[in-house]
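Encode chain A's predicted structure.
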Amino acid sequence: MLRKECDIEKITIREPNVNESGLITLVNDRNEIMLPLSSIKGVGARAEDIITNQPYSDCRDFCFRARPNRGTVMALAESGALGCLSDVTQYSYVEDFMEYWDTLVAERTEEDKRIAKEAKKKFTPAISLNKTLHLDDTEAIIEKNRSSKEQINLVVILKAYSQKICLIED
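Encoded structure for chain A:
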């Protein structure tokens, strides 16, 4: 019924896409009604993560920043919501696109492993190990090591659990 009224009034209703759609139905700057990503069955709560990182330049950018699961990507591909990405148009079938998607996910996984390995090499303890740490000392350690988020998080977590904190070398 509403679609017929929009046709009569010459109002365009655009299907959802990952670069323009929101969580709710919106009107874009060209006075077109944009359907939300959440209207696509299989996207659900992942729509918020996708919208938070908009816009995307291509599938690789989408894969690395939005990090959707395979089921979500399949639903988006079948609905045509990925059509706004530059490298999607070369695939005629969803199955072919999903093979391409799997290679992107493998590449993302390797990148994540590389980053984790580099971060592990750079991490150095903020305090000497095998030392009893009192709550008064934690503020000085946080102040001294402001550049190391991992160290600050460690101290804050440990501070929350005990009045006296013993660090024991692994």
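Residues 132-166 form one domain.
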